[in-house]
Predict the structure.
Amino acid sequence: MRTRVKICCIASPDEARIAVAAGADALGLVARMPSGPGPIGDDAIAAIAAEVAPPVATFLLTAETSAAAIAAHIRATRPSVVQIVSHIDPAEAAELAMLAPEVRRVQVIHVEGPEALAMIPLYAPYVHAFLLDSGRPNAAVAELGGTGRAHDWSISAAFVRASERPVYLAGGLTAENVGEAIRRVRPFELDLCSGVRRDGRLDAAKVAAFMAAVRRADAARGGGSAG
């Protein structure tokens, strides 16, 4: 299996088309957040999600923390996947699985230390995948993604080995470091925003360079992928 790629912070149908043409497997659509780049309105998210055809997946990044609010956000935007960017109460994750069984659910884990691994059993029964990111959810102004920072990949690698669910890797990925990220972590899918942007806009040349770097890294390890 090859390493898949999700391009996040998609801001317009044009950006969606650039990412899809480059071979992206998924698009991230960022809703209102306490901080970070790329948020767009729910109407824009719904319009882009409606335009993107399978097999490309559309991810709604939601900062909502209750099952009811997340389910309502899904109904308003109609993505194929919901990415829950806060460490929500596992009881809410369980309720969401009942309220929105038709949508795949990805739980973000912000890797601040080895304690991230303890979250696997809390969420695994209720989600389809995990996404490891570099946010600081307990900061004075919560950081829930889009930081452009890499975290400790040794912890991410341990998380991948311990998880029975597929694991996405986010945080500071670029064409220059993605080969090492794939070699060390072996994620199911990569997720990036700032690494393929120039002056805040999606840059087709940067996307192409990133995708080429992923293909080279996969070829160097025989095309295998964890997850």
